[in-house]
Amino acid sequence: MIQLTINGQPQQFEAPINVAQLIDHLALHGKRIAIECNGEIVPRSRFSEQMLTHGDQLEVVVAVGGG
Amino acid sequence: MDNLVIAGKKYASRLLVGTGKYKDFNETRTAVETSGAEIITVAIRRTNIGQNANEPNLLEVLPPSKYTLLPNTAGCYTVDDAVRTLRLARELLDGHSLVKLEVLGDPKTLYPNVVETLKAAEILIKEGFQVMVYTSDDPIMAKQLEEMGCVAVMPLASLIGSGMGILNPWNLQIIIENAKIPVLVDAGVGTASDAAIAMELGCDGVLMNTAIAAAQNPVLMASAMRKAVEAGREAYLAGRMAKKLYSASPSSPTEGVIAKTEKKPVSGKS
Known about the structure:
Largest sheet of chain A: 5 strands, mixed
Shape of chain B: elongated
Shape of chain A: globular
Oligomer: heterodimer
Strand order of the largest sheet of chain A: 2-1-5-3-4
């Protein structure tokens, strides 16, 4: 069991997962998003390589209207 | 062609618009299209986890293929937040490096924190970002940001969202006179005349959001702003007449005015 904090919300997962699996889990596949893990950018090219571990803090962002 | 050139790229429109505060995406798109803007700002925010997976995305409405997107750091109060936000933006937009940096100092007034802005700009420039920087109307700060390597300096006309217009044209004039990079007024424009005045002062462009989005009819205001920026630019290029308290030189010729008639004496009865 691992716990990840995603956009400030804690979520439990049965087993360690990679970033690509997390994106599928969040139903964000194919969406234009960017991800930061513990303050570092996770490049799109590394989504399926980067494993997430207990306590990781993730920010998942999109572009929204702003001035 | 009188283009706005930022970081080596030419733009026909000198009006830059934000995409926030609209009623819906349809209004956003129509207002942006009507404004004629080519550079549009976007904010970077956390996505709603587990909600509305199929809700439309802003970038589907305003695609990067059609517009130059300018991700901002609105809402950032520290160097770290601003830098991280723009790194995320660059990743989100496939390596796009043109950004709008703003580091705010106070949630009540949204006044920029220029000390933090300088620090953030330095880091971002080192990382290869092309930084258009929102700042106060302090000419020394504007110059330092230019010398550091920012690609455009964007002083406020008045506070963000205030619609108070240009409160210190004198400072803006000093900034414009000293700058070798584009100077854009960002924030404070309330209506078309404010935008025209900014351009008449010699600003290279105007960036606005609330003035359009918070108008009673945003699309019509977008049209007005487009015209105001164009009119102000043309007036600046044309060079205005000198101001004087009064003039003894009327616009119509002083010569050739028809003569005053004398009443013809009534011929006497014989």
